[in-house]
Specification:
single chain, mainly alpha, MetI-like fold, globular
Length: 278
Amino acid sequence: MNMKRRISGVWTVIFAIISVIWMFPILMVIMNSFKKKTAISISPFAPPTKETFAGLSNYAEALEKTDFLWSFVWSLFITVGSVLLMLVFTVMCAWWIVRANNVYAKFIYLLFLISMVVPFQMVMFPLSKMSDMAGLNTPWGLWLLYLGFSPGLPVFIFTGVVKSLPSAVEEAAMIDGASVPRIFFNVVLPLMRSSIVSVAILQTMWVWNDFLLPYVTLDLQQFKTIPIAVQVFKGSYGTTDWGAMMGCLVLTIIPILVFYMLCQKQIISGITAGAVKG
């Protein structure tokens, strides 16, 4: 028992150190957001002092220069719409793939798996051109682009979850006269709630922080997400307003961090639910 406790204590210390290392960049951003610009360049690792403390001036400048409120609205609009669309269609698709269980379903599932290994850079320029031609260079057009580009992981997780669900429950509902849509929405969806929340969290964090897809597809004269708006602090000849940028980054992190903290318990339960059967 003593040996086990010592080993457990060692692992606790190791993981505590790893946690501190992982948190260090975030703490650096928060700390430097309260420092003057010159102080950040001279001593980025030093905590703010009486001489270097900038108060909330960096945050005020970030709100003013980036038009943060509208950037926040567009980021929220794109994220909520894209994630809802992804969840609805990928859950339906995964359920059909598992319950159909034929050659066509297996082939489609294979295509979803292949899409997970295709890097965005391979389709970036054709996608940008096609989105302009199709009029999808808008926040609501991005819903369809995200739906088309990122269903691989959700379908992979949801198919594992559906395989773990007893088909007898669905058969009983069908015998009682329930239609297919009613079986799906009243029987299947409630059983998949934890995995749906899990995928929603992962996809929300990705879409909210995504820079490249909105940057190459959106009409930047009208619409800017928060990651794009942050670029306004990068000036010519490599100059950067680090103070205001740090303040803007903190404002960007807070909503998604709060969302993650509220829903983090669902992540492990959702992913492990999809790992019961493969």
